[in-house]
Every structure is written in C-alpha cells, then in structure tokens.
C-alpha cells in the first residue's frame, strides 16, 4: 500500500516538480493547508516542515484553471 502523506523530498519526486515550484504552488494558494499539505514541525520551528497529500496534489495539478 502506498503512503498518502509524503515528505517534501518524496513529493518532489512523485510529482516530478522542482522543490522551489512545489513550495511556490503552496505559497500561491493552489495547495491548501489541510487538504494538500500539513505542517508537521514544532510551532516555534525556524522553518516549517511539510507533508504533502500526494493524491490531492495530483488532482489540483490536473484540474483546469477554470474549474478551480
């Protein structure tokens, strides 16, 4: 059984995207907190650590702009 939530490194490989593009899509609002990604780092961490719901990310990437 495949994992649903992946680390950023695993998600980059699964989605075939550069790391900076994946993080930019989150920053631009395509990926939404709770649906496409979650923060797993401590509240006061210097940098957040994310996990990505790979199936929801794939769906968002394959949805035409007019249907988002």
Structure commentary:
By secondary structure, the protein is an alpha+beta fold. 37% of the residues lie in helices and 15% in strands. It contains three helices and three strands. A three-stranded antiparallel beta sheet has the order 1-3-2. The longest helix has 9 residues. The termini are far apart. The mean pLDDT is 91.
Secondary-structure map:
Elements (H helix, E strand, L loop, with lengths): L4 E3 H8 L3 H9 L9 E3 L10 E4 H8 L7
Low-pLDDT parts are none
User: Structural class of the secondary structure composition?
Assistant: alpha+beta
The main β sheet shows up as: 3 strands, antiparallel
Strand order of the largest sheet: 1-3-2
Q: What is the overall number of helices?
A: 3
- Order of H and E elements: EHHEEH
Q: Which descriptor suits the 3D outline?
A: globular
Q: Fraction of residues in helices?
A: 25-40%
- Specify Rg, calculated over alpha carbons: 12 Å
Strand content: 5-15%
Q: Looking at the chains present, what oligomeric state does this protein adopt?
A: single chain
């Amino acid at each position: 059984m495949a994992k649903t939530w992946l680390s950023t490194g695993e998600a980059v490989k699964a989605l075939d995207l550069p790391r900076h593009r994946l993080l930019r899509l989150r920053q631009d609002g395509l990926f939404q907190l709770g649906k496409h990604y979650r923060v797993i780092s401590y509240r006061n961490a210097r940098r957040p650590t994310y996990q990505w719901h790979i199936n929801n990310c794939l769906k968002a990437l394959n949805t035409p702009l007019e249907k988002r």
